[in-house]
């Protein structure tokens, strides 16, 4: 869960990056509504596909001492009550879409009617035009009496920028409440990997592994989360495989790549180990050791200011030197409410690591005569290096 | 999964309801993109919060013999590859957002750039203005060279209607491929309830029940699904409780209301049984039997053309006659890609049941001196009555 002070800091950071001529903003990407207020529809609820709309106003009134402005959430009553945890805004505009007595109409229209209740605000309102529904434009014109803008001119660079792009940039550098949320996911993810050592063996199915790991994650999290990722065996003739389990039985000699995310409140862990199914071959051990060494080499580069391409080069170089060829995918990526997101650790990346970026390192190597291996940890980038957030054991066997 | 012929039939039904002056439509609610093409981002994937945009054109060219027109999907390359199953459209406009070699830019902008690749279509394009991002309006103006409309005038009634409202209305009457998808959820849901009889007893936690039931569902579905609903014990002093499990331990004498949904490909089951934790009291048995009788009374009303309010009246009447007071919530609701959705079975409902509506019946009664009971089945409405889709055992004890 995000904190009130974190949400207010993020809103203040947003306002600091917008030109003075913008007096209001409407945010509609559910990730960004959550980022700025902690309001998130619980995805494990009947309202899972529904949304709220966030109106931000620069002038927060006399109580606004931190530059966070004023935040107003608009939602239908059932979406409002499907919130995952306490949300932090100044006022809620709610429309009773459903009352257990009368028929219902279009639920989306209830949300827009809630926003319209705000009445005239005038001025210029920047829409998050990537997610703000076209119908919100009508609300701006007819009820808020404000000029809706789809872009703004960046005060620093003069470039034409969208609100969505600005928010994505702000999201990179996590505040402490976000790190806490990520650590909650990490602890659950660690428990899932510990469980994987117990359950992975010849004769079980990939779906049984999924269920056992998901159960372990939920138990440690203290609540159900969302579990996705790669849950597949690689083997002779199939060096690479990924995606959700399909009910396939694991066989002696397989290398099971378990690269999964556990999502709580929109944030996620994303780390990997490769498990030998039965006793691994000497060649499989060599491949595993090379990937693990590549991970260590990548760690040596992690630091605010480092080039993301240098992280890739470090990981890939180890694999090349070990005779397994260059790394065929990213060495890692940014992580948070999206996956993947910047910084992207690839050969031609123009990204640089920033303090409080959260990133993965995930070198892997895939061979039709051996099987595939990938190992991965998650890290918070610091001024001098990194703090490792995941704590699972990286090993082929128990 | 939806079928190609089902998707084409749904598109043809849509065009038949739109005035001739509308030559194109842009659909953006992910539920509706799936409804019309079977394209759905797998929610258990790293692309879980991403979207594609669907452009429909009335003139489907020479190959269009069924009135389905032409369907074009616009997506970034990673969203396109995160599809859950095969999708049915005439062409895909894809933009390579990420290639494992270069940095990435705003992923949403890649989707809009993909749509812009279609080039000029002219005419009038109806936007699904509830979900179409404002930035799609720019694409319409600058690239598609089409007039974007947020509403249309219904040819039959003359009313001003939105595309979202029309699609919600069309969604009520399910085609056979949708029923097949719902039945897949039902079979998994049945297995979860069977498992609940095994695991619910004093000393286990609600979270353990969740994990065991979810595991049973996933095994029968053959893949992981989304599990949500009510997973809580009621007891003396707490006649009503709901929502996700919180790790609370079940106690002798509790009534555990397990009202849950299993979601596959956006469709869901939603049925309930109430489980006695240990040996139930005589009063708990009476309450249970009254709710079960209320369910049977509701079944007697189900039929195309019946008033949804009459379903409520039938269920509530049984509870009143048994001395437990009137039903305090809906007797049930429509079910499919949303929850709840019309028809709404409540006292003041103006809805009528239609053939191929899929609905729940879920009478319940909650008392601080007894605990709470709710029982529920799911049904497809037919001309003469109903087909029951759920097959779990409704009983307090094994």
UniProtKB/TrEMBL annotation, chains A, B:
Coiled-coil ranges from the UniProt annotation: none
InterPro entries registered for this protein in UniProt: Creatinase/aminopeptidase-like, Pept_M24, Peptidase_M24B
Lineage top rank: taxon: Bacteria
Top EC class of this enzyme: hydrolase
CDD domains found in the cross-reference section: APP_MetAP
Gene Ontology molecular function: hydrolase activity
The protein's Enzyme Commission number: 3.4.-.-
Domain Peptidase M24: 184-383
Gene3D superfamilies given in the database record: Creatinase/methionine aminopeptidase superfamily (3.90.230.10)
Keyword terms of this UniProt record: Hydrolase
Protein name (Swiss-Prot/TrEMBL): Putative peptidase
Native source species: Alienimonas californiensis
